[in-house]
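TASK: fixed-backbone design
INPUT:
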């Protein structure tokens, strides 16, 4: 396979072309400011590389890749106790512990690449496939054989480009949807949003809001992040390790590094009870959209105070106040996100195992790697 475009792989942001950010202006997660965050504080089991796509000497596309070593994880997640979980963990540890991702495994949505207008997207994807093969060879030389290569999180209208870019040896899959909240342009205040809810969901809002009695929410500035760093990490880690599945855990300094590099585009809000930090959430300003990022909470207080639901309402209130057009709530907790008005956007990916026999049976293996989530979609509006 060849492409009309060439590519170059970079292992440091210091080596990126000077006009890299010109292409990343539509997506903060491909800007050098964010890529430096990955470089300085990516999870311990993750190695990041950056890919430039060129038409002769002109930069026409940029992309990110992540090599993930699952052998370095003590736990994939402790919430589910079932046979499928043990089978999934066995498959990963035994046959699939080294994963190469073209895209960002820490985020939901198309954060794999950006391209200039009027270039050939099919040829760009061919170039990314060729780059993935070079990366596989690179890690093989380091005695880290890539078992699984993954292109992740593309919407339905993008599938046709992969089908025309020689991806016959990959298995196309669909995972949990990306939960996206679209703001009504007529909402000027959070009360406008509340008034648009049906009685059942207005009552849900009022009930959860009353539970916040005694809790103080405030923005945590950069100067205070170090003070709360251990508490923030413990709250995050509790939620992360109790998720159904994890392929990484953040470093303790990740939030501090993120805030230092993204500054006012990265916000962290703390929830305090009797001056003790009992929960937090983070959001990222990404053009006209807000992306939710990692959060954490004390589980006992979260249940009593409906803290997670209140965090969702608070993020909606902020988005309305600042006139964003959408909130990317990502995957997980699908039903509760649906109950506040988020809608599911189906996401697709492409996966290939290095073992040809296993790859031929990927359609049977994949359901164990990514178990189906059964949930009921809600419609909270009148």
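OUTPUT:
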């Amino acid at each position: 396979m060849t492409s009309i475009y060439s590519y170059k792989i970079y292992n440091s942001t210091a080596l990126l072309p000077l006009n890299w950010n010109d292409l990343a202006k539509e997506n903060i997660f491909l800007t050098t400011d964010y890529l430096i965050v990955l470089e300085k504080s990516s999870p311990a089991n993750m190695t990041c590389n950056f890919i430039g796509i060129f038409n002769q000497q002109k930069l026409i596309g940029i992309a990110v890749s992540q090599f993930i070593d699952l052998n370095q994880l003590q736990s994939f997640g402790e919430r589910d106790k079932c046979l499928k979980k043990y089978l999934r963990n066995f498959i990963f540890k035994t046959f699939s512990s080294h994963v190469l991702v073209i895209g960002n495994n820490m985020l939901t949505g198309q954060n794999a690449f950006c391209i200039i207008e009027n270039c050939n997207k099919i040829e760009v994807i061919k170039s990314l496939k060729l780059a993935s093969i070079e990366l596989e060879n690179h890690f093989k030389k380091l005695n880290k054989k890539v078992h699984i290569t993954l292109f992740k999180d593309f919407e339905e209208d993008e599938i046709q480009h992969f089908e025309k870019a020689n991806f016959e040896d990959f298995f196309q899959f669909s995972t949990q949807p990306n939960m996206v909240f679209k703001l009504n342009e007529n909402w000027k205040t959070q009360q406008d949003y509340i008034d648009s809810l049906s009685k059942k969901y207005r009552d849900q809002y009022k009930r959860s809001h009353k539970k916040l009695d005694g809790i103080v929410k405030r923005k945590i500035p950069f100067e205070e992040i170090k003070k709360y760093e251990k508490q923030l990490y413990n709250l995050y880690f509790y939620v992360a390790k109790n998720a159904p599945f994890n392929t990484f855990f953040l470093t303790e300094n990740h939030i501090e590094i993120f805030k230092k590099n993204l500054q006012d585009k990265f916000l962290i809000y703390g929830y305090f009870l009797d001056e003790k930090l009992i929960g937090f959430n983070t959001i990222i300003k990404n053009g006209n959209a807000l992306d939710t990022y990692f959060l954490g909470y004390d589980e006992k207080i979260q249940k009593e105070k409906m803290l997670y639901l209140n965090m969702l309402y608070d993020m909606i209130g902020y988005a309305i106040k600042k006139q964003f057009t959408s909130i990317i709530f990502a995957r997980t907790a699908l039903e509760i996100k649906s109950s506040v008005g988020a809608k599911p956007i189906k996401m697709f990916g492409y996966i290939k195992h290095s073992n040809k026999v296993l790859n031929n049976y990927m359609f049977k293996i994949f359901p164990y790697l990514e178990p189906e989530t059964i949930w009921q979609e809600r419609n909270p509006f009148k």
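COMMENT: The chain has 14 helices and 15 strands.
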